[in-house]
Design a protein that fits this description.
The structure is a homodimer. Chain A is of the alpha/beta class. Helix content of chain A is about 45%, strand content about 15%. In chain A, the strands form two sheets. A four-stranded parallel β-sheet of chain A has the order 2-1-3-4, sandwiched between helices. Chain A starts with a strand and ends in a 7-residue tail after the last helix.
């Protein structure tokens, strides 16, 4: 199998994202290898050897995606036996022209620590954890958004992603049987914060499957119970005009991006 | 201020990552605007209007980074009044030549749901939450890695990032005063899993600052206490040959990438 290398003197996240986006256009399988923090000549030599070995083993020239700030290291990697994509470089000159200023590559380091947004994200993660699963309704005034939905509809991973990726404080509230009663009404704890609410829902079959993995053959996991709960929450969302999304066919990234787009919520980290 | 637009008929994460990496080479400030899920002609028209308005307001042509699968929508956006970077496109033809196959753009959708890795990530997030902060030492046999360190040294956000981004099951264990005694020894719960341990440490000044935000003027937050705890854990790491990292100057992304690189741990999602 042909190898794809993602190399950087930083995290290599940029090289990975770009390389994956490009390779996903092809229905070919690759062996992915990320090599971050290549900061010394020796480390660069080691990577070049890995690339050569991979070429010899597979008989196919590896694809090499890289972003490297250090000029010497960059030059070394650019001479690998692979097919090299230094994809940032060819956009720099046109962008310099468009902006009318020179680039400052030595300042370049995405995904590294920026004190300000770093603390914001850690605070947001701590907030999401402290306000997960309806555990702490007294701090909802601090929330940027309150995700609500039935148990196992995707609230927790989405809250954490919003916190880690965007620095958004997302609480989440699970509608329980207690809330359901005869007809699900907006729980008193949420009424004051109605404008912050965002509903999640999910297909009954998928919910049944997820819950069955947790508690097989329970009433909690039964199709009947799943259908009933989802009907109630969707009715509530419509009645109370709470914006909502069905998480069944979306990734965590898609859910989060859709929530931002739909609510106009401002992220704290770009 | 000049605007930078990140546009896609998906999450726009690829456009953002590429655009940010490129713009971070310049010491110029931009107004960032992400517009994900541009799927209809009307939505494309709305974006084109936004770009035109931004041009009129600022007098500077906005930068437009986009990845769009739909041909019609892509054509529309490529005619914006901004400076357009369809950065994937120019790499496709050379890559087709290198691979000897045509690209299948209609199959292209990174950051969308892939059932298999999706479940792996959700499982990993649930595992990280259930095994956060030493709460559940009985499931360490399931862990891919066990992060250890003193309170507030960065264990929880790192565990969650490893889970969300890579599908890695990371437990975390906080060394407490009980563990310290006269000299910190490896707690019995961790002995069996020594090969899975990865230590975090942090500079005393930074730890003091973080703890002071939580409990000002407490013994817990005092410089003396912070110094003592950090000295003990670092001695333990060295004595027991536990690999460790100082989190003070690294982002969550950098910590996670360094941990993968240092341990050789295989991620479950690429």
């Amino acid at each position: 199998m042909r190898s794809a290398f993602y190399i950087s003197d930083g995290t290599a996240i940029t090289a990975e994202v770009f390389g994956h986006a490009l390779l996903s256009l092809f229905t070919v399988e690759f062996k992915h290898q990320t090599v971050p923090f290549v900061e010394t000549e020796q480390q660069a030599k080691d990577v070049l050897n890995k690339i050569s070995e991979s070429f010899q083993e597979s008989g196919q020239r590896p694809l090499v995606f890289y972003t490297i700030v250090n000029t010497e290291i960059r030059k070394m990697i650019s001479k690998s036996v692979g097919i090299n994509y230094n994809f940032l470089d060819q956009f720099v000159a046109p962008l310099e022209k468009a902006l009318g200023v020179y680039s400052m590559p030595e300042k370049h380091r995405t995904h590294s620590i920026h004190e300000k947004t770093y603390d914001i994200r850690i605070d947001a993660v701590n907030y999401a954890l402290a306000n997960d699963d309806g555990s702490n309704i007294k701090d909802y005034n601090e929330a940027d958004i309150i995700l609500c939905g039935v148990s196992r509809s995707g609230k927790t991973p989405t809250s954490l992603y919003l916190a880690l990726q965007y620095g958004i404080k997302a609480a989440n509230y699970p509608f329980t049987e207690e809330d359901m009663g005869d007809v699900l009404k907006l729980p008193p704890a949420l009424k004051r914060f109605k404008k912050k609410l965002f509903g999640l829902t999910i297909m009954a079959e998928r919910l049944h499957q997820i819950r069955s993995e947790r508690r097989a053959n329970s009433r909690y996991a039964s199709m009947q119970q799943c259908r009933m709960e989802l009907r109630e929450v969707e009715n509530l969302y419509r009645k109370e005009k709470i914006p909502f999304l069905n998480s069944t066919k979306f990734s965590i990234e898609e859910m989060s991006a859709k929530i931002l787009a739909q609510t106009g919520l401002q992220r704290r980290k770009y």
